[in-house]
Every structure is written in C-alpha cells, then in structure tokens.
Fold each of these.
Amino acid sequence: MIQSTSEQSTDTQTKPWDRDSIQALFDLPLMDLIYQAQTVHRANHKPNTVQLSSLLSIKTGACPEDCKYCPQSARYKTGLKTERLMPLDKIVAAATEAKANGAERFCMGAAWRTPKDSDIEEVSEAIAAVKALGLETCATLGMLKPEQAEKLADAGLEYYNHNLDTSPEFYGEIISTRTYDDRLETLENVREAGMKVCCGGIVGMGETKTDRVGLIEALANLEPYPESVPINNLVKVAGTPLGELEDIDPFDFVRMVAVARITMPKSYVRLSAGREEMNDQLQTMCFMAGANSVFYGDQLLTCNNASVEHDRELFAKLGINAS
C-alpha cells in the first residue's frame, strides 16, 4: 500500500516522497542528477557490478486484458502465436541454459489476468525445480489472491513481478480491465506471503513528464519500496494501440533511472524492455545513473532483447562485473 503517514523508510529522507521533491530531482541539470544518483548508488551497492536476470514466457498470448502496449492481449492482432503453459522439462532446460550463461535470477512470465488454482499448482512445480538449480526465482502471473501468493511462496518463489506501469492519473488511458488498486492489492498479497516485490513501470507510452513523477511517487512510497524496480522503455509492436508512438528523448530515460535510484536507494534498478534499441552509450549513461541490473538473454517474453554476446562485450569494455 502507498503510505499516507508522515514517515517514510527510505535511506535519503525521513518523510514520504512528495511530487514536488521528485519533480525537483527531475529538474536538476543532468550531470548533477547523475552525480547524485551515482553517489547514492555507491553508498548502497557495489560499484561496477550488474545483476543478471533472465525472463521466460511460460504461457504466451490470449490474455483478456487490454493493456495498450502488450502484444499478448487477445484484443490486438499482432501475429503473436498463442502457446499453452510450457511443459516442466522445457522450463527447466531454459533455466539451466540461463544459469550457464551467467544469469542469477530466473523469472517466469505467463499471460494471465488471474491464474487458476490449477495453474498455480503447475507453476509451483516449476518454481521448485528452478530453485533446485541454484537460481533465484521470480514470476509474473497476473493478479494473485492471498492464498495463491502463499502457495507460490511455499513453493520457493522469492520475487513476484507486478508492475504499476505508469502514474495513477494516466493509468486509465493505458488499461481499463484492471484498476490501480487491483495492482496494489496483489502487491500487498505478495508482501503478506513473505515474498519480495519486483515492481516498476514503462516510459514512452505517451505519458507526460508529470506522469513519470507520479509513477516514481507511487513506487517510492510503497511500504517497503520494491527490492527490484524494472524501468521499461516501450517496445512498439505493430497492431497494438501504442505501436506508432514517437520515441522519447533518451536523456528522459536516463533521468527516470537516476530518480528511481535516488528515491529507492537499496533497490535493484533494472534496465528491462527496450534495451535492444539502446546503443552502448545510452546504456552506459544508465549504469552511471544507478542501474545495476539487466534482463539478460536474447529473448524478453515475446520481444527480442540485447544478445548475450553483445552484453558480455559491453560489460568487458566498461569493466563491469556481472553477477
């Protein structure tokens, strides 16, 4: 839930992050903002170290939701092939490959609005099998009931991803099939079950700069704020309502990373969707701004991702250790 009290458990201030304070960060000269973000980063994390997570779509397409950015929605014609829940042996094989390539965390994503109890049982088997490989486990399966969250936690799930996507004010322009409060309720169920939260958003969906402030406010004032904060740059897919939008200014993306780092100092701030379109210079600026995690592997759910080989080359050039 979002705090409404006068105390906030961040490491940089003792009151909730209000919009004026967050806006002031966004308004800083870019070099000053990056300097402040890197200072916060080094006070809370190992420098020159990036955590690697791998993401696999274990059930693809036919989602009843109407998220305007998503090719997996059954409402849009994107040419995506619908696939049922992946067999356990294939999930384990993908996790084994991800670990061999250096991934530390393995996330399983399924295009459901709300999973059935039988789905939870099958995914729980996969979670236990992936955990047995020595990987951290993460899943994103849609909205969860309290008892479903508890079953996933009992199976060994460590992180649950459920993004807020954007500000509360802009949210209705992007999604109508579930509310902001629905998302917050699932996050609360995840916390109550004892799991860690992976929660971030998407930029480049036609939102205003004020909406980016609103998203950071919502994330930073979760109690506690998320352990992982994925920052996604919209991947424009033909056939979705957002498929023809213009790209945002790359420096605006860097600012988003930096403000996330400052307001959520102990979180993993993760470069997520859209990284394939980022050049090395932009990614380097994001690392300077406090990003310390990436989704790793050639595929990110249904979209292409930066290749493993290219990531290794970039990390070597920058002297970054991958973990």
Amino acid sequence: MPAVSPLRNDWQRAEIEALLALPFTELLHRAASVHREHFDPAEVQVSTLLSVKTGGCPEDCAYCPQAQRYHTGVEASKLMSTEAVLEKARQAKAAGASRFCMGAAWRSPKDRDIPKVAAMIREVKALGLETCATLGMLSGTQATALKSAGLDYYNHNLDTAPEFYGEVIHTREFQDRLDTLSHVRDAGMKTCCGGIVGMGESRAQRAGLLQALANLPAHPDSVPINRLVQVEGTPLAGTAELDAFEFVRTIAAARIVMPQSMVRLSAGRESMSDELQALCFAAGANSIFYGEKLLTTGNPDTERDMALFARLGLRPMAVVETAGTVHAGIVEDIVASPRSCAA
C-alpha cells in the first residue's frame, strides 16, 4: 500500500499556510500519522554538539552572540586540539549520544583549516560515532575533503524565508546558503538544514521557510527547528516571544512536508517546559541535542532529558553498525549551525 505522505518538492506557500491554520488538534493528528508512517514514534535520536572554535565570527546575523561586532560576553577562542575534541567525544558516547557534532564560528573555513578539522573527524569516527560539522560556507573542494575524511553530515541552515532573510543577515545572501548545500550534496554528504523561528517573522514567512526547505532538490536528512534564544547585545534581544502553540504548529508542519526527515528540537529547548517538549514530540519531532551546551546557549542536562524520556515512554535511537559504517536508528541527522545554535 503506498504511503499516505509521498515525498514532494513542489509545495506551494498557500498549502503550508493552510496546514499551519488547521485546528491545533487536527494538525497534530495529521503530523503524528505521518510520523508513524516513517518512524517509531517512541524513538528519539540523540546527539551532542561541541563548539570547537567559538566567537569572533565576522558576520552580522542578528541573533548570534558569536558575531564579533556584538557585545555579548562571548570570548573568541582558537580551534580546539584534536585530543581535546576526542575527549569530549568519548564523554558524549559514554553518556549515550550516537552522533557527535562539531561547530566552528567561521564565515567559511580557510583551506588551511580543513586538514585540522579532517583529523578531528577521522578520530571521532574511529570511536564508532557518527560525525557531523557546521563550519560556515564551503567550497566544492572543501566539501569533498571533509567527505574524504569521513564526515557523515554537514549543517547549513536557511535560517528563515527568502523574503525575510535580508531583515536578519546582511553579510551573505540567501543564495550563498543554497550554494553550500549544493556543494555538500555533490560531495555525497547528508544535509542538515533548518531555521530559526521567533525572529519577528510572520506565519506566512514561517510557511516560506518550510517551503524553501521542502522544495530543495532533496529534503534535508535533518531539519533543526530553532526557537530564538534572545541574547543581550544582539539586535534581536527584546523581540516578542513566539507563542508556544505556534512553535508546535511549525514542528507539525515540518513533519508533514518533509515526512522522512529527522525533525530536531534545537536551540531554545532549555527554556521549554516538559509539557511543551512533549507536544513537540507528539507533533513529530524525533531528534534532540543533549549534554554539552548548544554552542553559546544552554541545553537541558542529560539527567533532565532522560527523566523526561522515562515519563513519556521514549527511548534514544540505538546505534546500529553495518558493513563498517555507523547508523543511528532509522534515519541519520545532524546539527544546527553556529549561528542557529546560538539563536
């Protein structure tokens, strides 16, 4: 019997707006039904994210405490050593993470940085963890080099709808993000690509973000949905907080339009109640970060997450090794970018 929710890359904005406008319980029912077609609804993929190079970014993303032009108290640091990263990866694996994500606050890495990151990737991969990275914009050559080192996933978020993008970021174009994603796909890596909500965008613009994601040449393997974390000193500090039910609606719509993607609760989860997170899981979210702080913003600690899983009857996706490769559960996924993680 064919799936009720076929993969589509031709979503119209009006269709997604109509989804977001459904009665809340109807929208959750539809999203939960789609979720069950493709995933075990009791499983959640768990990853740990480490900032391997923090602060000093030259971009002007209005949400990001790592931008050097904003006074947020984030001190710029140099790239961590491979051994220091490896120790964090060992700790993450011991705590139950199946994937280790490395983020660096660069606009784009310099070619001389790639061998250093590649060494980290090889060593983390050797531990039996899936690897992912978010380093900013990549050239085709850089993407190929990272793939050769064993990188499984690369994150580069669209952040918001194309027409709202210029209200948030001025130091790169929306097309630059699409170009990096193209390089990553061409290199044979899987993509993680999502966005941030609660930056002052309208519901129609949230629909525009989901439309842009769902209509990429291939759906992202992972779709991080970040809820803006307002950081004092950034231009978006003081923005009206997004309604919690509107956030859940966004999760549900993402599940429906990208049925086989992992939908990840990313930045902003620290401030979410257990009840709000439970609604997000019911709406089709099936991936989280835990453990390490989410780059420059907080992340709920491991004990709280495991206690919530126990209360809800959820379990972490198991790591399954096949033919020398490592897979987490049903479908693999990755991280939010340094900019979106900080949001």
